[in-house]
Design a protein that fits this description.
By secondary structure, the chain is of the alpha/beta class. The chain contains 12 helices and 9 strands. The chain is 40% helix and 13% strand.
């Protein structure tokens, strides 16, 4: 059976830690100009049936660093525009001898269907409102670099939780690694059955982010919303925007994150997006390394880092020996 990366929910904690450690190891190697493993015999298909900048480019960069060949597809230029089903498209790519697939699709569960028929590794680059596992892995790496640990942190996920696959993957990942997860948003943008997700619901921003160590802001996904879920964008921003004023309610050293694309003036203001609390650009950069790790992990039978996992999460960012020791101790707790 091929190894797939379809979601975080059913991923073992050991696998999550291994993927993060691999990503940190790859990051350190790239920064220091050292060699990374090569998968030059592998050809991976990039199937993006939804628009993407960050995820698509970072997967392509990841494949480039690993010396993999890529074949790019989009719905508009594929036979699906002529009526071909997703199943038949997947079977076509299988028998055109691609070795693996990276796939984004508007339908939840689409990557699970692809994995059923493709016969090789499938990586989920976002399926509907279901999951976005590599985004969550990159967010976790970013938090570990800055905080040295995830266990016992408070992570507030703010905004359009209902339509967000990022919210779901992050909730599963951070809770599995020992963090307290909070969902913060209006009732219309919280899932109908929040008890099925690992987190506590808050409808008031102040209560939801009070004392938070990490705030993950979510984009309003208007393209997925039914009419009437919000009275107005300006009212939403007045109640749920993370900004200079509302950040005072969080931990003084709180991290502000956003999976992108940002809608400045709605989810965040410029201070939150560009200020000292923000790690948004680090999230983008770390996306490359977690996708390198993910590709390597699914294409190799033994995806083990070359040095102990607890050393790697921090050396990727560490500036001093003392910092490295603190991060190593934090990673060991996991």
């Amino acid at each position: 059976m091929p190894r797939n990366l379809l979601g975080i929910r059913h991923l073992a904690q050991d696998d999550i830690n291994e993927l993060i450690s691999l990503a940190a190891d790859f990051k350190l190697r790239i920064i220091e100009g050292k060699a990374v493993p090569e998968l030059s015999k592998e050809v991976v298909g990039m199937l993006f049936f939804e628009n993407s900048t960050r995820t698509r480019v970072s997967f392509e960069q990841a494949a480039h660093y690993l010396r993999m060949k890529t074949a790019n597809f989009s719905a508009g230029s594929s036979s699906m525009s002529k009526g071909e089903t997703l199943k038949d498209t997947i079977l076509t790519l299988r028998y055109e001898r691609l070795n693996g697939l990276v796939m984004r699709h508007r339908m939840s569960g689409s990557t699970a269907l692809a994995a059923r028929y493709f016969g090789g590794p499938v990586l989920n680059a976002g399926d509907g409102q279901h999951e976005h596992p590599t985004q969550a892995l990159g967010d976790a790496l970013t938090v570990l670099e800055r905080k040295g640990q995830i266990k016992d942190l408070t992570v507030a996920i703010v905004g359009d939780v209902e339509h967000s696959r990022v919210a779901r993957s992050n909730a599963w990942l951070f809770s599995k690694l020992g963090a307290e997860v909070r969902f913060v948003g209006p009732r219309t943008l919280i899932p109908a059955h929040p008890q099925l997700l690992p987190g506590e619901v808050y409808h008031d921003l102040r209560n939801g982010i009070e004392g938070a160590d990490v705030i993950i802001c979510l984009r309003l996904q208007k393209e997925r919303m039914a009419q009437g879920l919000l009275s107005s964008i300006s009212e939403y921003a007045s109640m749920y925007q993370v900004n200079r004023e509302t950040l005072r309610w969080a931990n003084r050293e709180c991290l502000v994150m956003h999976p992108g694309p940002l809608n400045r003036g709605i989810e965040v203001d410029d201070v939150a997006a560009d200020g000292d609390h923000s790690v948004i650009t680090t999230q983008i950069e770390n996306g490359i390394f977690v996708r390198m790790a993910s590709l390597y992990w699914v294409f190799t039978s033994e995806a083990k880092p070359s040095s102990p996992p607890e050393l790697k999460v921090k050396t990727a960012k560490a500036k001093t020996p003392a910092k490295a020791k603190r991060t190593a101790a934090g990673a060991k707790k996991k």
